TrEMBL record:
Cofactor(s) listed: Fe cation
InterPro entries per the UniProt record, alphabetical: Rieske_2Fe-2S, Rieske_2Fe-2S_sf, Ring_hydroxy_dOase_asu_C_dom, Rng_hydr_dOase-A
Superkingdom assignment: Bacteria
Listed name of the protein: SRPBCC family protein
Keywords, comma-separated and alphabetical: 2Fe-2S, Iron, Iron-sulfur, Metal-binding, Oxidoreductase
UniProt KW Ion transport keyword: no
Organism name: Rhodococcus artemisiae
Pfam families to which the protein is assigned, alphabetical: Rieske, Ring_hydroxyl_A
Keyword set includes Iron-sulfur: yes
Domain Rieske: residue ranges: 62-169
Gene3D superfamilies: Naphthalene 1,2-dioxygenase Alpha Subunit, Chain A, domain 1, Rieske [2Fe-2S] iron-sulphur domain
Length: 396
């Protein structure tokens, strides 16, 4: 099943078609009420960066992996998050749990491998060993070390939940942190993600880029459908319409529809009857730092993870998800080609432009920056960030 129909009811699909036909016929796009002015220091201020890590990422859930990256019992994956490096471990009962990747003895990095399968994790520094459940199992030469209450020396655990095919984590081991993905997403957005059946997809490949760019610069780039013609002239611009978006805010989050130029082949008919499934991209923007793009034959998932201790560093992760595992050479060649296109767009175009933006906003003499009315998803993001800091009980 290479191509799949849009996973929404006919009323929703007709709404997508009607909105896109109207915009393309009239040269319009969804717009915010006014232009938004922002202070460029949001991309460079170390004090704000520290607040984001402590007051935002220490409380709200973010995607850490796709479930198929941990397919079997005792599989593990190390993931760098804004505050901690975390080890995700598939338990014998099938649940995924997450632990701060630090030995409780002297602070050694417990798991140096990126991924693998283990029942016991042993620290290379002094040999203390922990089970897959995080419990302290053994202390090397324990009689000479002294008395230790092992019940108080388990690995520090972070909240984890699997939902919609992803492993979500709250990046804090504080006792008062609770995770509830359905509540965080809200009913409508949760339903929209559920309809995409992402738990039936498999992760074909993951790419990681560590860049000296603030995470919000990158999030802004992927919320923005206004730069396709200018930034991506050498890759995807000939195939996608620029500056024509249908935007639907959904509580904290939002959904946006954009069109491939191939939509012109079905645009003359009634929106209710138009087969638009292969001609649009549906993007889900998950606050604060994630994007899930539905293409006609695969999904693309982007995470923009702030690096610890710096205002400008980010680990950008890109995942390509396919409906079925790639088994044949033909299937692998297809997804390798898609991956190469993504790399050309992200690494060779978006990252180049955004690296220049990061350098430019670091200039001393720079006035306010502006998001136009047509940059409506970006405005949603920045308004939400302001509300999140102002309302820590509900996070915007």
């Amino acid at each position: 099943m290479l191509y799949t129909d849009l996973p929404y009811d006919e009323e929703t699909k007709t709404g997508f078609a009607r909105a896109m036909f109207d915009h393309l016929d009239n040269g319009t796009t969804d717009m915010a009420p006014d232009i938004l002015e922002i202070d460029p220091r949001i991309y460079t201020d170390p004090e704000l960066a520290a607040r984001e890590r402590k007051e935002l990422f220490g409380y709200v859930p973010i995607i850490a992996a796709h479930s198929t990256e941990l397919p079997d019992r005792n599989d593990f994956l190390t993931v760098r998050l804004p505050n901690n490096e975390v080890v995700l471990v598939r338990q014998p009962d099938g649940e995924v749990r997450g632990f701060v990747n630090t030995c409780r003895h002297r602070g050694g990095r417990l798991v140096p491998e990126e991924k693998g399968t283990k029942r016991i994790f042993s620290c290379r520094y002094h040999g203390w060993a922990y089970g897959a459940d995080g419990s302290l199992r053994s202390i090397a030469d324990e009689p000479t070390f002294g008395t230790v209450d092992r019940n108080c020396m388990s690995l520090l655990e972070v909240p984890v939940e699997e939902r919609h095919g992803f492993v979500w984590v709250i990046d804090s081991a504080a006792d008062d942190r609770k995770i509830d993905i359905a509540e965080w997403l809200g009913h409508d957005f949760d339903d929209s993600l559920a309809a995409m059946e992402m738990d039936r997809y498999t992760c074909y490949t993951v790419g990681t880029f560590d860049v000296d760019i603030n995470w919000k610069v990158l999030m802004d780039a992927f919320l923005d459908g206004y730069h396709i013609t200018s930034t991506h002239a050498g890759t995807v611009a000939p195939y996608f319409y620029n500056n024509a978006q249908f935007w639907q805010p959904m509580g904290r989050h939002g959904r946006m529809v954009t069109a491939r130029k191939s939509i012109d082949t079905v645009r003359g008919g009634s929106p209710a009857d138009a087969p638009i499934d292969r001609h649009i991209t549906v993007a889900h923007f998950l606050m604060p730092n994630m994007t899930v793009l539905r293409q006609p034959d695969h999904l693309e998932v982007l995470n923009f993870v702030p690096a610890p201790g710096t205002a400008v560093g980010t680990r950008m992760q890109m995942r390509l998800l396919t409906r079925e595992p790639a088994v044949t050479d033909e299937q692998k060649a297809r997804w390798d080609k898609n991956w190469a296109i993504l790399m050309a767009v992200l690494r060779d175009e978006d990252l180049v432009v955004n690296d220049g933006l990061q350098k430019a906003v670091s200039n001393t003499d720079i006035g306010p920056l502006y998001f136009g009315r047509n940059e409506i998803a970006n405005q949603h993001f920045h308004h939400w960030m302001a509300r999140a800091f102002a309302d820590p009980r509900k996070w915007g």
